[in-house]
Amino acid sequence: MKVAVIGATGLVGSMMLKVLEEHDFPLTELIPVATDKSIGKKVVYKGKEYKVIGMDDALMMKPDIALFSAGGNTSLEHAPRFAAVGTTVIDNSSAWRMDKDKKLIVPEINANVLTKADKIIANPNCSTIQMVMALAPLHKRFKIKRLVISTYQSVSGTGAKALQQMENERSRITGEMVYHYPIDKNCIPHCDVFLDNDYTKEEMKMVNETRKILGDDSIRITATCVRVPVNGGHSESVNIEFENDFDVKEVREILSNTKGVVVEDDPKNNVYPMPLFAFGKDDVFVGRIRRDDSNPNTLNLWIVADNLRKGAATNAVQIAEYLVANGQN
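Request: output the structure for the sequence above.
Response:
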């Protein structure tokens, strides 16, 4: 079992290595891959040092699985090359997510649609993954009509340079500005680029990817995505209007019995999800579960997860685990 990690020196690539190790993934050969500027660097996996190699060298090794986290352009160029030599690519970029011929997978929800013929599999956006983990079982039971989403996304979602910008600001050091404005002591309602409809690309990812994963284009969705000065962990306020009425107690029971979801909902004792405590964990945490009294059949949820783990690396590794367990790699 040869596994390549493309973008092995980046934030998500490094986390993929960590998750592969923690999950004791059954690989026999690790192939760390990065761009030309990182070739020759060393990464550590299970206490052993591995030298980072280039894309062409990795391609010649014909890995069984390649976990891609090196940006959309890299994925568009190189994922088909790996697929052509028989590698199953699990891609963390947005390159293939809305391709009608590619599956967009959150294993707990829709891994069953995967077949051996799927050689390029898309990993959803981090904010989408954690949200649909909570929404999927509720949609199945009550049918979602409309979602109003507000996100509070950590700086790590932008990458290492953004984290450095925030640390520089906190230390009063002049350095590279990844954002248009300071992020420390600030909130920036601008995740990814603005589109012609005045929504950002991140906001439209949540709209389109949610519909695709849940298999329902009738769901009306609007989103506002905000960058906040948090190192790691995305938070979301989600207002859900259902076709059918619900009992809040049943909602809690459904979520409590959903694999990968942890309910933290005891407001009287100040128990609710926060990125501070979700950091470093694979689960999705849900709390502030309450009826929206301003609209019929409507629920409010607060959803938090570590965006580098379940929102990216862990979800990709879980897809790989599913493939191996079902002999589809």
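The longest strand covers residues 144-153.
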